[in-house]
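Re: the pair you flagged

First of the two:
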Amino acid sequence: MEECGCEHCGKEVKTKSGLKAVILVGGEGTRLRPLTYHTPKPMVPVLNLPFLEHVIRNLKEHNITEIVMAQFYLPASMREYFGDGSKLGVHLYYVMEETPMGSAGAVKNVEDFLDGTFFVLNGDIIQNRDFTAILKFHRRHHAKATVVLTPVADPTHYGVVETDKRNKVKRFLEKPKAEEVTTNMINAGTWVVEPEVLQRIPPDTKFSFERDVFPQMLADGLPFYAYPTDNYWMDTGTPENYLQLHRDLLSGKNEAYTFDTDVIKGKRCQIHPSVKFKGKVMIGDKCRIESGVKLSGPAVIGPNCRIGENTSISDSVIWHDTVIGEGVKIKSSILADNCKIGDDVKLTGTVVGDHVNIIEGIQLKKGSRVMPGEMVKSSDTASQKI
């Protein structure tokens, strides 16, 4: 019997046998600030659902239903929302780290749950993962570990993986300099690992798969393979990428997301008949949108939002319970939960944290970042990037 690590239930659970997945959800999401000061990165909404829900649903499609959350930062909201996972048809287990342990250290910390081949997923990546095909490849090559690869335009921000013609890994170079780049294929943040690899990770030690475990495996000549794919992939770790993700999903660039209509409306919305829509727009439940409003996609409005008369919103994502005044212009921006935007405010390329109040008539500089809870009374108040 093993403790699920859930501070709410206090019960013991027994994990089922079969394939499992570990999702690394302990990061503080510093690149996404100010959005992640009070919302952990896995709970940031994507198409009005927590990011993590998209990942779990992808696993469930391939019958991977035993999922361990390796947690550290703001864990409570994940546990409160997902519970034991039964609503999504999976079994979720939560294990806390007392201090950040790195990618390998976090997996070592959940070792008691892992009794066979398992997947490891970075918690900030959206990709159309064919877990079934990846596992078949891994087993066909009798690999001890398999890393999924994806091509990117600039590999210097990621882990470059060099392979031979049989896709056996030859070299693993984390965040190389431009002159060191020999391939555009990078570590896509999904691995298949055999349990004996865990013996290479010291307990209670900060340790990395990318910098420690994988290079050691190569040095020792263990069978370590790469599974290349050109399926849709996005690192959602920055506001720019987060906004681009919504553009991609609403435009159909990611083939896993299709919509029968340009305007996707939630339940019990009040939308004035004069509201004009252009492109793909998603509106959450219980929204109220007044007369003369223009919504230009790609755009997502979260549940329980209110948008005042003659406001225009384009290429933006608004989280839940935000009230937007009259005559407001919002373009290429992200607004977090429970914000209040005064009349005639203008925001372009702005990222606004939760519970922000921007008084009427303010025009923020492009690229502004507004801290959670801030009262913006001047156009210069929030002009500095975080």
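Second of the two:
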Amino acid sequence: MRAVIQRVNRASVTVGGKLISKIDNGSLLLLGIEPTDTFEDIEWLSSKVANLRIFNDEDGVMNKSLLETNGDAIVVSQFTLHAATKKGNRPSYIKAAKPDVAIPLYEQFISQLEKDLNKKVGTGIFGADMKVDLLNDGPVTILIDTKNKE
């Protein structure tokens, strides 16, 4: 499971001209799922997202978490995070999970993050052509891969 976590002043997801999700201060997560991902990956990543200290404290130091700041979150499915670009110029997405595997894991991740944050989490629509708008704060952008816990 791969996630790109962006600290945002605002973010929104629109599908077909209809606003699906909107937040102010918080995190926008782009989430890529592999067929080998498990519930343990979900729990680990959700906890990491909720507790990652990427928000400023009173002294302007990144020392507070999404949980501590009561920030909001949007999770958007992003199979292209598993693009393989080694050969040629056309990315291969063979490492990305197919919808029958990815959708349940995506939904479980959202449920787990809502539990960890004790609040509703915004989403996109799995497989839809989404327009994601954000104002990255900092900019702060973190890449996490559950297969490479660095």
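Residues 26 and 71 are 4 Å apart (CA to CA).

-B.
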